[in-house]
From TrEMBL:
<keyword id="KW-0813">Transport</keyword>
<dbReference type="GO" id="GO:0020037">
    <property type="term" value="F:heme binding"/>
</dbReference>
<dbReference type="GO" id="GO:0009055">
    <property type="term" value="F:electron transfer activity"/>
</dbReference>
<dbReference type="InterPro" id="IPR036909">
    <property type="entry name" value="Cyt_c-like_dom_sf"/>
</dbReference>
<keyword id="KW-0408">Iron</keyword>
<protein>
    <submittedName>
        <fullName>C-type cytochrome</fullName>
    </submittedName>
</protein>
<feature type="domain" description="Cytochrome c">
    <location>
        <begin position="1"/>
        <end position="102"/>
    </location>
</feature>
<keyword id="KW-0249">Electron transport</keyword>
<keyword id="KW-0349">Heme</keyword>
<dbReference type="InterPro" id="IPR009056">
    <property type="entry name" value="Cyt_c-like_dom"/>
</dbReference>
<keyword id="KW-0479">Metal-binding</keyword>
<dbReference type="GO" id="GO:0046872">
    <property type="term" value="F:metal ion binding"/>
</dbReference>
<dbReference type="Pfam" id="PF00034">
    <property type="entry name" value="Cytochrom_C"/>
</dbReference>
<dbReference type="InterPro" id="IPR002327">
    <property type="entry name" value="Cyt_c_1A/1B"/>
</dbReference>
């Protein structure tokens, strides 16, 4: 988990995690694994992601890996999330870390 927490430091500019996490540029990521896509109340998701949410369903580890590889490609033009994690081992580490954050 230490590796994932270290990689998550890259995400902290836009996302919070933890029991009191709030939306920033991106939604809070506490409990994201298993949560429906585009479902944090009050967060202004891109129209593209909101339309795609029903098709994607819930975030699981595989979907998060795909999202972090290229959000715009995964959700067909999402413009709010431009950050990518290029290294597969970083994506795996951060997704494993997010899974522990209930």
């Amino acid at each position: 988990m230490a590796a994932g927490e270290k990689v998550f430091a890259k995400c902290k500019t836009c996302h919070e995690i933890g029991p009191n996490a709030k939306a920033k540029i991106g939604p809070p990521l506490t409990g994201v694994v298993g949560r429906p896509v585009a479902s944090v109340p009050g967060f202004a998701y891109s129209e593209t992601l909101k339309k795609k949410a029903g098709e994607i369903g819930n975030w699981d580890k595989e979907k998060l890996q795909q999202w972090l590889t290229d959000p715009a490609k995964y959700a067909g033009g999402t413009v709010k999330m431009m950050f990518k994690l290029a290294k597969p081992e970083e994506r795996q580490a951060v997704v494993d870390y997010l899974e522990t954050q209930k």
